[in-house]
Amino acid sequence: MTKSSILARLFTAATLTACAIAPTVASATTLPEMIAQNPAYQARWKAITANVRDTDREAAFVKNLSGPALPVQTINIDGRRLVVGYVCEIRNCNGNNVFAAIEPATGGIWAIHRRHLDVMPRYRFFGSPDKPMKSIIFKQMTDHDEHQREEWGG
Fold first, then answer.
1. Model confidence over 2-11: pLDDT tens digits?
2. Is residue 24 classed as helix, strand or coil in its secondary structure?
């Protein structure tokens, strides 16, 4: 089984199953809940999203992580334990969403915000991810999309 097929199975809306994230985090915890429950994560999220303009209505949910979210999942890639999650804008999940990775060992948080404007999506990374981390979170996003297409037959 390849890494991509493992990731696709771990991060799907229809087949999400309970798994232990950490002794203090419930398996059904979402990305917004996980960040809200940890002051260090709150501070880091606030820092990495500081440049999101408050006047940008469609990006405002990025700062406060308000919107529908799936339970986070734990993945191991290249010896790194990461907790990955997803949140989207209310009533616009396909058009405006965020995928994030948290590395509990270091407190690092990285994210990609995807926003469909007209036809082409725009991507914005948060947390200054290096190239391997960009690949990880971009892969989470594309695996999620692939699963949705399979689920909905499109």
1. 544 443 343 3
2. coil
Map out the domains of the chain with their CATH numbers: 3-152 (3.40.1420.10)
Structure tokens, 114:
């995807």
Residue 73 CA: distances (Å) to CA of 59, 95, 111: 24, 22, 15
Strands 96-103 and 108-117: antiparallel
Residue that is written with structure tokens 């809306």 in the block: 13
Interatomic CA distance for residues 12 and 40, integer angstroms: 28
Average pLDDT, integer, range 51-78: 86
Contact 144/12 with Cβ under 8 angstroms? yes
DSSP conformation class of 115: E
Task: Please enumerate, as own/partner, the contacts of 23-29 that have beta carbons within 8 Å and a separation of 24 or more.
Answer: 25/72, 25/83, 27/71, 28/71, 29/71, 29/72
Classify residue 67 by its DSSP letter. Answer: S
Provide the percentage of residues in the chain whose pLDDT is more than 90.
51
Q: Are 133 and 110 in contact (CB under 8 A)?
A: yes
